[in-house]
Amino acid sequence: MTPDGALPSETSIKDPVISIRDLGFSYGESPVLEGVDLDVLDGEFVGLVGPNAGGKSTLLKLILGLLEPQQGRIRVLGQSPRQAVRRVGYVPQFPTFPRDFPISVEQVVLTGRLGFGPMLGWYRATDRAAAHQALAEVEAMDLAHRRIGTLSGGQLQRVLLARALVAEPAILILDEPTANIDARMEGDIFDLLARLNVRLTILVVSHDIAFISGYVDRVACLNRTLVCHTTERVDGDLIHQLYGDNVRQVAHAGAGHGHAHHLGQQGH
Amino acid sequence: MREPATDTLTTSANRGTDPMQDFIQALGQHAFLQTALLAGLLASLGCGVIGTFVVVKRIAFMAGGIAHSVLGGMGAALYFGFDPLLGALAAAVLSALLIGLVRLAWNAQEDTLIGALWAIGMAIGILFIAKTPGYTTDLMSFLFGNILLVPRRELWFMAGLDLVLLVTVMLFYRQLLAVTFDEEFARLRGVPVAFFYLLLLCLVAVTVVLLIQVVGLILVIALLTLPAAIAGHYVHSLGGMMLIATLLGGVFTSAGLALSYGPDLPAGPTMILLAGSVYVVSAVLSRVLARRRARRRPLLTATGV
């Protein structure tokens, strides 16, 4: 499903839109991330996989500026994460709002327009037009007047995606976008992401490397430290190894075959 | 407290007619009743608009803490010879900021701090009032309010507070909604979440002062939550909740005043009991309605079409 012609790995002159160097972070005593180096290039579709508690969500929070790195450096679109965050669209794994909140889908999507236009007053006509366009793009226009609490898991995921898109981001970051929905809709969501990848850089966290390898340009495997692979090389064997939940093995396999080629300053 | 004791006697003399008619008749005769009615209506604007935020953001306990700590400010103002309402306003805003800053800094200890502020504020207030010569009887009207004693000039003060609330909410509606709905996302959109969270708490503080006039600081929490909660049973937008809660607030204060007038009951508790009964009935009713609706279309939500 990935538009092969748009594979950016051949034209690797592009600048990294996310650049991470020697990143370290820990909650209290135990380190969650250590020596992480990662570049995401303009226009790439990168999948971030790894075991639970491997630091995936923490890495996203650091990229979004919700956490401050204790070591190393992150640049997003050439700026600090906090400065760049308005140009980053984010879809969380779990909604961070109460489901029974009295708000319509349209209003939820409109909150994505905060930061546009003047600080005071109500949403403008351009904001509403953008919200409708975003809802149409995720094929959820019919949900506009539904209350947020009445949506199914798949519908909610589309609406959250629309809320991220309405801010006209340059980068889209998604944390397990298909964790709470069934397999059929998982494919729909990733088809949608593949279409969006034509104009957006996408970084998606997933537990399902077998599934996402059909869509992404490159997989980054995170378990405290980081190892990357291009999709071409993620063959059956490798997937099997990952499913055998030994992520270390992937590290060795990757280094052994020597095809971490466009990762530049990859640590391993 | 009631000055025109003779009028009460005459109204109870010709019982048998509609008590509501008696009230309306008395309303035409007595300026203090008109003032009381207006005070109730002015208060209901705050209870509808800000009460909606309190309910959906689930900060009723915080609002209760702010309301009770206000007594400290009122007591101090009495002792030093200022208008107690100004003292109330200062104390309300101060404790709102304190509670808000502690929540933003250390998430965990918030409820302990609210409890402490709640009691400390009242203790300070009672000490000051005890040491203020000749004012001790006013304690009851601070605690439970006395809408019949609202002076006419205070209506202007209340209208001013209403104006501040309305203008602030209208100007920053988008940000207040975003911070109430989803703080993390608001932060990612570059909204200064801490500022708007504190602003919301300050608006709650202003509303508390507005409502203290009518029902006193102990019962404030009821008018701040019940009308909005009832509205939330039926409408599913923030604006709709604000509108209906304001109307309900107006109905509860006016009808409470009218009901209390005939049998000479304290007005504040009558309003609260009225609001409380409607809330209980509405909670049961809305649940029954929801169950009936769910039975009528059982598959729609399950399949996620």
Overview of the structural elements:
The complex is a heterodimer of chains A (268) and B (305). Chain A has 268 residues and is α/β, with parallel strands linked by helices. Helices cover 30% and strands 23% of the residues of chain A. In chain A, α4 (125-137) crosses α5. The two termini of chain A are 31 Å apart. Chain B has 305 residues and is mostly helical. Chain B has a single domain (30-295), classed as ABC transporter involved in vitamin B12 uptake, BtuC (Orthogonal Bundle), CATH 1.10.3470.10. Chain B is built from 14 helices and no strands. Chain B has helices spanning 5-13, 19-29, 31-57, 60-80, 84-105, 110-131, 138-144, 152-171, 173-181, 183-188, 193-234, 238-261, 267-296, 300-303. The chains are: A alpha/beta (268), B mainly alpha (305). Chain A binds chain B through residues 64, 66, 85-86, 88, 90, 92, 95-98, 101-104, 107-108, 110-112, 114-115, 119-123, 147, 150-155, 163, 167, and chain B through 56, 58, 170-175, 177-178, 181-191, 232, 235-238, 240-241, 301, 303-305.
Task: Provide the descriptors you would attach to this structure in a database record.
heterodimer; A: alpha/beta; six-stranded mixed beta sheet; 9 helices; B: 305 residues; ABC transporter involved in vitamin B12 uptake, BtuC
